[in-house]
């Protein structure tokens, strides 16, 4: 590209040509293979003229800002996700006390029967780690998550003690891969899936292949389901429900793997709760009216400010920045 | 890359009026004090110059002159200085052109009017910017928009974007470059006057 910019009839430098060159520099630096020679060439170009520097700064400021703003879209009017299929099994509990006894006993027995080669991994709030296992499987840990892994010649076991993880399992029929979360178990049948543990329920979303989910009960209380791609299972203490989700919704569920949160017609309280999983600075929704407002859009999961900005600008809400939290209200 | 997202906040701009500045300070001053004037500077230039196609070059030259002066000494008021610089530039251009633009002679005193424009508070500027950038993003050609979002929001690499969009990396680069320029125009400039 020519560095001499043709002058117009005013004899001024051609600002369009300079701006085009500056944009190329930024895009190349930000997205290309950038080496020392490139950096030196850029610095020389910038040093060449204040006109170059100004054009570069201006575009650089815009580039940075697009990052912050994310792709905020105003919430669409309640477009319901079409549930392709819905199967619900209520699980009736005969005796809560008996259940607790059986579970406790089961957990202890399992714990002591494991070889001592258990390894623990954890992420802090806002963290995201990928573990590559020897067997070719991969586990991605989302924010504030703790797991333990025990591999033997015959079995592969993972305990999800808290949080959420994505599993890409290298299937081996002779060596089952089992994820345990509380009482529930997910048994891999050649799959990619996520498991998310919350206070009172467990979410399992299946992306590829098949997996079996069971509630860890015996006899009449035992419930299990084979999950197929698109299936999202929600298990609580006494229910196990499976819903089929469209592909777009599944992708949104997995936004965290790319460091983003995807909202689509989501209530503000639910969106705030999601952000609070990823950030120490908490978002507090100040009143019931605000709580029911709905938003959509894609946000970097660790950028609470971008979310607050959006709430302020698009929904016209009042945002109060405090030391440890951000209060959003009418 | 340094975070310039705070430039509209009061405390982000170093104030060392009447003194020399280091290069990073000068950059921060320029981004925080001068660039936000772009919309009103553009209006001022439009009102006082007949040929609209000259406006980007005139604006850029104004910036260069403001910057050159600020390297020696930071003006006490960026706004007053920028408008005075723009006016001087137009006078120079009229002399060089030896053609007086139709309105130039009579309306050069518009400067006072431009300076009296109420300065919106910074909070309002920030809100306005967010809306403008979102609008600009929405109005980008779909492919450019897709490339920008995949890169800046979803954090994909150029190769990943190319695979996702089923185009070459060179095309992705082109979309990103064009998209960035269109966004910068809408973001810093006078969107009201834009087509």
CATH architecture of the largest domain in chain A, by name, is: Sandwich
Question: What is the alpha-carbon Rg of chain B in Å?
Answer: 19 Å
Hey, roughly how much beta strand do the residues of chain A contain?
25-35%
Number of domains of chain A: 3
Explain how this protein is built.
- The complex is a heterodimer of chains A (330) and B (195).
- Chain A is globular.
- Chain A is an alpha+beta fold and 330 residues long.
- Chain A folds into three domains: 15-67; 86-249, Jelly Rolls (Sandwich); 259-329, 3-Layer(bab) Sandwich (Phage tail protein beta-alpha-beta fold), CATH 3.55.50.30.
- Chain A is built from eight helices and 18 strands.
- In chain A, the strands form three sheets. In chain A, strands 2, 3, 4, 5, 6, 7, 8, 9, 10, 11, 12 and 13 form a twelve-stranded mixed β-sheet that branches.
- Chain B has ten helices and no strands.
- The longest helix of chain B has 20 residues, at 78-97.
- Mean pLDDT of chain B is 74; it is low at 1-18, 101-110 and 191-195.
- Chain B folds into two domains: 10-119, Rna Polymerase Sigma Factor, Chain: A; 123-188, Winged helix-like DNA-binding domain superfamily/Winged helix DNA-binding domain (Arc Repressor Mutant, subunit A).
- Chain B has 195 residues and is mainly α.
- Chain B has helices at 23-34, 38-48, 55-72, 78-97, 104-107, 110-116, 122-139, 142-152, 158-165, 169-188.
- The two termini of chain B are 32 Å apart.
- Helix content of chain B is 66%, strand content 0%.
- In chain B, 38% of the residues are buried.
- The chains are: A alpha+beta (330), B mainly alpha (195).
- Chains A and B meet through helix 1, helix 3 and helix 8 of A and helix 1, helix 3, helix 4, helix 7 and helix 8 of B.
